[in-house]
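User: Please predict the structure of the protein below. I'd like the answer in structure-token form so I can feed it into my own downstream comparison script.

Assistant: Understood. Taking the following sequence of 588 residues as input:
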Amino acid sequence: MTTGDESAPGPAFGRSADRAADVARARLARALHDSGHTPSAAVQAAFLAVPRHLFVPELDPAAAYQDEALVIKYGEDGLPVSSSSQPAMMAIMLEQLRLRPGHRVLEIGTGTGYNAAVMAHIVGPRGAVVTVDIDADLIARARASLADAGYRQVRASCADGGYGDPEDAPFDRIIVTAGAWDIAPAWLDQLGPGGRLVLPLSVRGIQLSVGLERPPGRDGQAGADRWVATSAFRCGFVRMAGAFADPEPFRPLGLSPGLYVQADDGRQVDPDGLAAALGGRALDVGAGIRARSRDELADLDLWLTLTQPELTRLTIMETAASRAQVGPLLPYGGLASPTLEAGQLSEARWPGEGGPRGDADGGADGVGEADGGGGGPEEVGGAKGVGGADGAGRSGLAGRSGLAGRSGLAGRPGAAGGPHRPDRPGWPGSMGRPGRPGWPGRPGSVGRPGSVGRPGSVGRSVPPDQAARPDPSTALTMPGLPELPGLGIGGLVGVRPPRGPLPTAASRPCLDPRAYPGEIVLRGYGPGGPVLAGYLARQVSAWDQLGRPGTARLALTVWPADAELTAPEGQIILARPHVRLAAGWPPP
């Protein structure tokens, strides 16, 4: 592997020709340290030294050092396909990676090249960094920026990252900086003894940045049959491109241009039925349990998703255009009952319309209907009854306007093809602390199906549509899902702060940090929405009684695809073409 001039791994420590850039870079490094994202001295020093503004030259130097993801390329559909990751999320993943001087590192997904430069600073002149991306334009851009910043020793290669880099393998560390649904055999095969893989892995549609390593075997050597997650953090990255792309595409949702929906594990959905439900009445149900922070809501969302495998996980991604027309919907995503056949939704009735009835407890009492004046969803307590309202007044209930997409993707393209800086945090799409959905990373390059790894690889390639659904026969699944009177969509929308003496906008559910601690609120859409939201609200009490499990206590193990597994107590099994995942919370 060519490492170039090893006598000078980068520019002079923390100094450049631009004094304003130096000040802004020092401010960012200090903020990351103060927030706890860079506890190690090596990561802190790298952020202090590497000039990010040289990797996004379209921006003013001071703006380049905001703790934000910077989108640098959009697809024809207007969705981001590449960005410079948010520094806070970069720091979290670098701490997960545990780089040391002299390490050899492979990065899948190059983007601007900034992350590769940061890693090169950490591993030093005795180490080596290779970064691979499937996009030739991004590689050309990164090479130029790396040279300008003084990191010519980084090798940027345009190749299919699903195959890794067999020429320079083995590596001490591999990091994937694009949302992955499966784990390519090459990524595990090309790690040397004691190696570690860090990647944003989709777990029922929720991306988690996980650090994987082999646990010690009985003889003290690393076990060859499984990989165990040593840490997990909620994140949101641009998904992989290429033939190894996951089967979870975003589909246009007909409510407005620029609004998209994604279903977990390639499950089939009826976009027209979903659009009709999400564009209609909405119901809010209070859970009677308080959350202390947005991080706790993110943990609750993950727990609900893994304990309800019979429900389809939905992620709603919006752009600036769609937000202006329909307003925020479900900031953490949602869970949906099996979609009705086309045309059935119009025949189904909401409770109180002469059809099936149900209250927040899934019973038949306390059903009410708000007048359809566009005042937004009716807010009710967990067992105080339910009410409906048309969806005209939803905007503003889940944070301020101009925020990032629900999948963690950014808003509109920047001018003249330059990077766009998404608005600052105000809801969970912004990456601030561990456990909160993040801003986008960069698209990776991926392998083509049918590839078979070297001996010891974790399984054979299987078409994504043959991947098994989550196994519901597990102790993790919570019983008691009631029969719904039609399509139901439910999910978290925020917390409701204590009500003042007079009704105010602050009494609506929101994600504003000032609302915490506040009562957790769930929202339901569609004819089955009231019953589903009430059912999910009742599960919040179980989550609270279990000690509020979330990412910090999540157990995740990766097995070969052909492994014969029985779901461990408290976990579910997720099948992928090349691996099987066991995820959940084992009992103490």
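That's the full token string. The chain has a mean pLDDT of 75.
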